[in-house]
Amino acid sequence: MSFRHLRARRGAGRVLQLLLALLVLAAAFSASIALGQISMPLSVVMDAFIAFDPGSTEHIIVTTTRLSRALTALCVGSALAVAGALMQALTRNPLASPGIFGVNAGALFAIALSTTLFSVPSLQHYIWIAFAGAAVAGTLVYCLSALGRDGLTPVRTVLAGAAITALFVSFTQGLLVINQEGLDSILFWLAGSVAGRSLDLVAPVAPFILFAIVASMALGRHINVLMSGDEVAKGLGQRTVILRLLMGALIIGLAGAAVAIAGNIVFVGLIVPHMVRAWLGADYRWVLPGCAVLGAVLLLSADVAARFLIPPQEVPIGVMTALLGTPFFIYLARRGMQHA
Questions:
Q1: Regarding predicted confidence, which is higher, 40 or 294?
Q2: How confident is the model at residue 339 (pLDDT cuts 50, 70, 90)?
Q3: CB–CB of 212/257 below 8 Å?
Q4: How confident is the model at residue 217 (pLDDT cuts 50, 70, 90)?
Q5: Domain of 32: which CATH number?
Q6: Averaged pLDDT for residues 24-46
Q7: 319 lies in a domain?
Q8: 324: domain range?
Q9: Global confidence as pTM
Q10: Which of 10, 26, 90, 169 is the most exposed place for a label (fewest CB within 10 A)?
Q11: How far apart are CA 141 and CA 87, in angstroms?
Q12: Where are the beta strands (DSSP E) in the chain?
């Protein structure tokens, strides 16, 4: 069998795997709408969209609460997973995730600062404040990493990210000590949650997330070349500086938008890229769409599980992803030390 036929078969197999993953995503999305403190059959869920009854409590729950919550988890999970894959490619560090770029810390600091100094009228305004804080933090990390003769290096990026994260976390804690009354207004951002998000909150950000994910996928072939090393990439005509700038902007945009909607949800950007590479291989033309699908599946599943862990209360989804991600992070760290 020729190499061309082998590659075609492998590509067809990956397409089939992605299609199966999309079916799993549809099942997770349906479960997110149907299951909760008030669970309902899928037939009732379908009726809520096809033949809405204003007098039905189940129909109102589906259309006003569950749908927006599921869409939020889908958008945030996809955004964080794709941002994590880009971050690991940019830094060449398997432990990298959007949090190390200072995005979460910058967004939370911006919210805490605005709560302390100003009266923010609505959650929609909080979204753009959080997005601006994430962008500022990510830009600072990138600029600090690029200083010096060696330019941007994986170690320098990690160190700059850790420093900026620690700085903004300290500032946020200081502001909350000064303004303890403001803690309640940003508590769900600190813990991370997709509950209580209306469609009006998600709608302005969702198209941006979709555009950024599609743009990331368009860079897949170029990222493959970059992963071969800067010298090889430059020898093949790759404009590595421009590519890194684009990747950095997409990381800031995706992770910033996710934090702006749902708050401090950790480890999705760390876990999912490793799972996808084990599943689909290291080709970023497949890794990025795989991350978009599997990230959404992971966060939707975590949100459903959070509803039943300690009923009738719900565990914040940020806590659920931390419970999943911490053992995985320890495993990766131990494996890295053994290979060092």
A1: 294
A2: very low
A3: yes
A4: very high
A5: 1.10.3470.10
A6: 89
A7: yes
A8: 3-335
A9: 0.88
A10: 26
A11: 12
A12: none
How far apart are alpha carbons 221 and 297 in whole angstroms? 25
Per-residue pLDDT reduced to its tens digit, 78-99: 999 999 999 888 877 777 787 7
Compute CA distances 38 → 60, 65, 173, 311, whole Å: 12, 12, 37, 12
More confidently predicted of 284 and 120: 284
Give a yes or no: residue 340 inside a domain. Answer: no
Looking at the domain assignment, is residue 50 inside a domain?
yes
3-state secondary structure 83-130: HHHHHHHHHCCCCCCHHHHCHHHHHHHHHHHHHHHCCCCCHHHHHHHH
**Residue pair 254/296 in contact by the 8 Å Cβ criterion:** no
Q: Are 165 and 288 in contact (CB under 8 A)?
A: no
DSSP assignment letter at 66: I
Question: What does pLDDT average to over the chain?
Answer: 82
Q: How many domains does the chain have?
A: 1
**From CA 24, how far away is CA 11, in angstroms rounded?**
20
Question: Residue 313 pairs with which residues in a beta bridge?
Answer: 310
Tokens found for residue 106? 């910058």
Q: How far apart are CA 315 and CA 170, in angstroms?
A: 26
Closest CA relative to residue 194, chosen from 138, 254, 259, 133: 259
Residue 51 located in a structural domain: yes
